[in-house]
Specification:
The chain is an alpha+beta fold. The protein has 2 helices and 3 strands. The protein has a single domain, classed as Phosphoribosylformylglycinamidine synthase subunit PurS (Mth169, Chain: A, 2-Layer Sandwich).
């Protein structure tokens, strides 16, 4: 089983890297891009013997306590069979 974790800045947090990317995109001629927000992506491979509920609990805890800063970041967890 594979878990995918997406970590992004909360909407209220300024994203200077996202703004720099947006500026670069505009310089390339893409002038209809309204906003760019950057984030982090993680793939976590779990052993096949881990039950779905246990996997969800473990990966959610990893995302909350290790992969993200809860003060400024949100996270989303998805699973692949």
């Amino acid at each position: 089983m594979k878990a995918k974790v997406y970590v992004t800045l909360k909407p209220s947090v300024l994203d200077p890297q996202g703004k720099a990317i947006q500026h670069s995109v505009e310089l390339l001629g893409f002038d209809r891009v309204a906003d760019v927000r950057q984030g982090k992506y993680f793939e976590i491979a779990l052993e096949d013997t881990v039950a779905a509920e246990e996997a969800h609990t473990a990966v959610t805890r990893i995302a909350a306590e290790v992969l993200s800063n809860p003060v400024i970041e949100d996270y989303r967890v998805e699973f692949e069979a």
